[in-house]
Amino acid sequence: MSNSKNDFALVCxxxxxxxxxxxxxSNFNLQVHQGALYGLIGPNGAGKTTVFNIVxxxxxxxxxxxxxxxxxxxxxxxxxxxxxxxxxTFQNIRLFRNxxxxxxxxxxxxxxxxxxxxxxxxxxxxxxxxxxxxxxxATGLLxxxxxxxxANYRASALPYGQQRRLEIARALATKPKVLxxxxxxxxxxxxxxxxxxQLILDVRDRFNLTIFLIEHEMKVVMNICERMTVxxxxxxxxxxxxxxxxxxxxxxxxxxxxxAIARH
Length: 264
Ligand SMILES: Nc1ncnc2c1ncn2[C@@H]1O[C@H](COP(=O)(O)OP(=O)(O)O)[C@@H](O)[C@H]1O
Ligand SMILES: [Mg+2]
Prior knowledge:
This protein is α/β, with parallel strands linked by helices.
């Protein structure tokens, strides 16, 4: 057993986020092991996306700290966080609607570019090599998420479920170590959700990722996450394995209004 802080991909320590008079998140603590598939659940407005915004550098927390692979990243901006290996998808899909599917993935690669603008303008070898590598890689990623057959379609022409898969491919193009997925199953039908869960498990293994996933759709978290945290009104009300969460009285009361948690 090791007690090194570096065993954790992501740690949040006593995070607080205050918007004016509203405490959107209070005393939020989290430890996600490298390679884990970790869930964050809770009712609408619980503060889930706010946690993602803090971890990905979109928001600076009003209290507490974030560590990525043992390094304090609190207050760093989104670009810097992305370079350190965090990628995310959004609750409301954010694609370049008028670009093709392939071009959307190519955009993701730019985070990792080494060639300078000068080299690009002169089309020097390093630039050309990067271009062809990116194209290869983007095509491969589209195969991985099952979108290679629509590579040249406009992103806006894809059905909703495919747009969500495209967002995942674009996030993977940044070569992340940690992937944050904000409600990836939102708007999907049961068959699409099923395929999505398989895809999430596949990419975790294939790309050696740590995945931190927000879901509203209980089935997704219960089936694929090893552990999860439950937020309600900005507070953690439970943390544990799916079976611990399913039988937790506080969760049942707060989150489900007394109903049962369906697990298929
Ligand atoms: N940038 C912001 N400014 C002010 N209030 C915000 C902001 N972002 C989120 N909130 C508020 O914080 C609370 C938590 O929101 P959010 O994190 O989006 O919840 P969830 O993702 O769990 O549905 C909500 O009351 C929301 O209105
Ligand atoms: Mg949200």
